Amino acid sequence: MTQATPIFRVMPMTEEQAAEISTWKYDPPYNIYGWLPWDQMKALEIEFGDPVLRAQQYVSVVRDQEMPALCGFAQLFPMEGVTRLGLGMRPSLCGNGYGQAFVSSIVHEARKRNSSHIIDLEVLTWNTRAIRSYEKAGFVIDDTYERLTPEGTQLFHCMIYKKT
Fold first, then answer.
1. Residue 133: what are its φ and ψ, rounded to 5°?
2. How far apart are alpha carbons 71 and 107 in whole angstroms?
3. How far apart are CA 146 and CA 157, in angstroms?
């Protein structure tokens, strides 16, 4: 029997959810997507450790049945005419075929917030698992460029949402 793809719901990120997300550990090579410990994020007020930024830009992606309630998160970063997505799924859910529905729920929230914005995201070119999910959700590769990361300079694709 095939497992049905879950329907995800987007909600404001709570401090408890933010603290939980900071504990998630990804297997290599995805471990570069990890966060600092919660106490450090709060003390430095970085990313979702900053309560104002968390309220303005971060959301939690949840599911009430058949899997952990907190399934992931997204940042909806506003730019001039663009909403840039940053997102992450709970490590235990990665690679299980939930990507398209997960990404689509985040795109839906971004469109609700500003329907006139282009929606884009950046992804490391080696992350084919994520790229496939983004393509299935309606994104296309628009540009490829180098960017500095904590691991040094790496190649990224910029992908733009094209589905209507």
1. -65, -45
2. 16
3. 9
pLDDT tens digits, 28-68: 989 888 899 999 999 999 999 999 999 999 999 998 666 56
Angle at 5 between CA 92 and CA 124, to 5 degrees: 55
Distance of CA 62 to the CA centre of its chain: 13
**Could you tell me the pTM of the whole model?**
0.91
Place of tokens 């909600």: 11
**Please, how many CA atoms are within 13 Å of residue 26, restricted to the half-sphere of its CB?**
18
Residue 128's Cβ-side half-sphere holds a number of Cα atoms within 13 Å equal to 0
Q: Cα separation of 76 and 80, whole Å?
A: 13
Please report the sign of the dihedral spanned by the C-alpha atoms of residue 121, residue 111, residue 45, residue 14.
Answer: negative
Burial of 147 (0-12, 13-18, 19+ CB in 10 A): exposed
Name the DSSP class of 149: E
8: exposed, middle or buried (C-beta count within 10 Å: 0-12, 13-18, 19+)? buried
Distances (CA, A) of 162 to 42, 107, 128, 152: 36, 11, 19, 31
Rounded to whole angstroms, the Cα distance separating 139 from 123 reads 11
